[in-house]
Amino acid sequence: MDIGGTFTDVVAYDEHSGTYFAAKAPTTPGDLAEGVFASLGRAVDSPGDISFFVHGTTQGLNALLERKGARVLLLTSAGMRDVYHIARGNRDRMFDLHYRKPKPLVERCDTMEASGRFDWRGTELEPLDEDAVRAAARRAKDEGFDAVAVSFLFSYVNPDHELLAGKILEQELGEDGEDFVVVLSHQVAGEWREYERTSSAVLEAYTGPVVRRYLGRIEGRFAEHGLTVPVQVMQSSGGIVNASYARRHPLQTLLSGPVGGTMGGAAAAGLLGRRNAICVDMGGTSFDVSLVLEGRPDVSNEGSADGFPVLMPLVNLQTIGAGGGSLAYAEAGGLRVGPESAGAVPGPACYGRGGTQATVTDANAVLGRVDPDWFAGGHMTLDVAAAQRAVADLADELGLEPVELASGICDVANAKMAQAIRTLTVEHGLEPSEFVLLAFGGAGPMHAVEIARELGIGEVVVPRFPGAFSAWGMLGTEVRRDLTRQFFTPGADLDGEAMARALADLEDESLAALTEQGVPAERQRVEHVVEMRYEGQDYTLAVPLLAAAEPAGEDFLATAAERFAALHERRYGHATPEAPVEFVTLRSTALGALPEAAPVAYAADEAASDTVRQRPVVFGGRSYDTTVLRRERLAPGQRVDGPAVIVEATSTTVVPPDSSVTVDENGFLVIKVGATA
């Protein structure tokens, strides 16, 4: 299940028949559980029938974006009070004259210090000032703070002071402790770089109470409805954990919702035999872009969340405010689209819930690109007249015809989405035309061909259940735990035996974590990487290892340097094989495989109603008699030339006049852009 800003999507797999079923219902912001059970009721008869349940949530991310998180007290080492506020001096947007650093989530006056110090080797130089920690606890209780984040120097080497501070805070908070979130930086990000580790701890403290309350409520509501299995939660890394772990480590769920689409994209790319894919998820509120590179999701070990650095494995996502509900408006005599959204309530004007401003969905309705009588699988009927009024009002303001403005709204939205794709591809030396565009989300398949055309991409693929594809992707992921240990050493000083022992410890710890999650031993595996760089570099690359014991073998330094050089050449276009290297960080990822779904072969649904008909649809300012088809009636191998509109329960696919679509053996729609001959 994927709980989005506009719709809640659910995909169910029947283990007995091998069939999938997808459904969606409007998200209910006032009480998310209402939308959850509305969509679930369309997919299963009873929650008691469910043997496995996983869902993605954007509760933490929404709290951050809307600045509705917890009030956080930050406790640092003496003399380090200003680290979080000073941040970094680099500017990512060199030529943006209006750039400002994001306002810190913790005010300087809400930062306290405690004496106590380790050196960089983890040797204690000064004991922790326990009275200072108790003073922080009293202030947190007396002044109404919701969370305390603790970030001490070199805690990633020796966490004893942070652990002691955490114990004192829990003791001092007493009975009120359950209402507080205490975050220790080494447990969030056990890595060097003081500012980034502190930022990660603050982010977990800021979003933690919201996520914990949400997960507690959703588990309770499901238990009331008869769910007997643990609730699993999608992580930002693309793996899953149970809700009890997610409550203890809420930051891991920050990108929980959109990441499911990336994992589904990797699975779909494998079925298609494609190594590289651009995944685009256009929902009602946002447009998310991610990549599949060499058959694997593009996962980074660090990133940012609304401008704040975060140290944890996460799928590289580019998100902008461009969805079906994005509002169109006039500004300085020009047309703007988004990032403001009509959301689920009131929604676009055509939803008939009181919305009066034109949105992207309204523009598509005016252009005839949606089926008003069978929207969302027939659960909604669109008010096209209301969409026409909303678009006409804005058209009058800009001195345009309504159809002309509707086309302009789509063009502006498409241009913004194409630029978001360039941010992840062109700006990183990747050529979009060498990728297949995998389009999903409720609105993605409507815009995908025009976006692909702007980027020079020749093939668009629309998977099954595109409007619930992120939920489909969650069914095919794995339980995942990531562990990190600093291991800084120049290559010339490498102790391979010590590195192998450190990796073995990480492997044992990560496998124990999988066992705690209930994953049987035969389904467990561990992958190791070591982060390396050339001496003097600031950035690193993750070099894969064959096993934990590999560094103890002969010629490991030469082998690792060779792998690093190959990765450097692939990523940056050059390498210096003769240059000395440094080892920085060890990373171990434990993966627990879930039982694989074995779906039946795709075939057209002969029982589905056949609603082939013609209707006028506008493309490029011209009206075409366009075929409207039900997707479930299309058989493998069947080809349809554009213009065509293909409708289904979770989305609508638009095929322009100069393109064609073919159904492959997986039931995917494969669109050749600009190819009807």
Question: What features would you describe in this structure?
Answer:
The protein is α+β, with helices and mostly antiparallel strands. Helices cover 31% and strands 26% of the residues. The protein has 16 helices and 35 strands. The strands form ten sheets. Strands 13, 14, 15, 20, 23, 24, 31, 34 and 35 form a nine-stranded mixed sheet that branches. The chain has a four-stranded parallel sheet with strand order 6-5-9-10, with helices on both faces. A hairpin with a 2-residue loop joins β29 and β30.
Q: Averaged pLDDT, please?
A: 89
User: For the CA atoms, what is the radius of gyration?
Assistant: 26 Å
Residue stretches low in confidence (pLDDT < 50, at least 5 long) are none
Alpha-beta classification: alpha+beta
Determine the N-to-C terminus distance: 40 Å
Q: What percent of the residues sit in helical stretches (DSSP H or I)?
A: 25-40%
Q: Provide the β-strand percentage band.
A: 25-35%
Number of helices: 16
The main sheet comes to:
9 strands, mixed
Shape summary = globular
The count of DSSP E runs of length 2 or more, i.e. the number of strands, is 35
Q: Briefly, what is this?
A:
This protein has 677 residues and is an alpha+beta fold.
Could you list some keywords that capture this structure?
nine-stranded mixed beta sheet; alpha+beta; 677 residues; 35 strands
How is the topology of this model organized?
Layout: E1 2-3, E2 7-14, E3 19-26, H1 32-41, E4 53-55, H2 59-65, E5 72-77, H3 83-86, E6 111-114, E7 117-118, E8 124-126, H4 130-142, E9 147-151, H5 160-173, E10 181-184, H6 185-188, H7 194-224, E11 231-234, E12 240-242, H8 243-248, H9 256-272, E13 277-282, E14 287-293, E15 296-297, E16 299-300, E17 303-305, E18 308-310, E19 314-315, E20 318-320, E21 326-331, E22 334-341, H10 360-366, H11 384-398, H12 402-424, E23 436-440, H13 444-455, E24 459-462, H14 469-475, E25 479-490, H15 496-516, E26 524-534, E27 541-545, H16 556-572, E28 581-592, E29 613-619, E30 622-630, E31 639-641, E32 644-647, E33 652-655, E34 660-663, E35 669-672
Parallel strand pairs: 4-11, 5-6, 5-9, 9-10, 13-23, 23-24, 30-32
Antiparallel strand pairs: 1-2, 2-3, 7-8, 11-12, 13-14, 14-15, 14-20, 16-19, 17-18, 21-22, 24-35, 25-28, 26-27, 26-28, 29-30, 31-34, 32-33, 34-35
Helix pairs in contact: 2-7, 4-5, 9-14, 10-11, 10-12, 11-12, 12-13
